[in-house]
Amino acid sequence: MTPAELKALFPNASQDVIQLSADPAYDIRERDRAERLFEPDPKAAERETGHGGLQERILDFCAAQWPKWKVIRARPDQPSTIAKGCHDLTVFLPGRHTLLVECKANAEKLSPYQLIWKHELGMLDHDVPIVRSLEQFKALAMAEMARPVPTETKNEQS
Question: Are strands 89-93 and 70-73 parallel, antiparallel or unpaired?
Answer without folding.
Answer: antiparallel
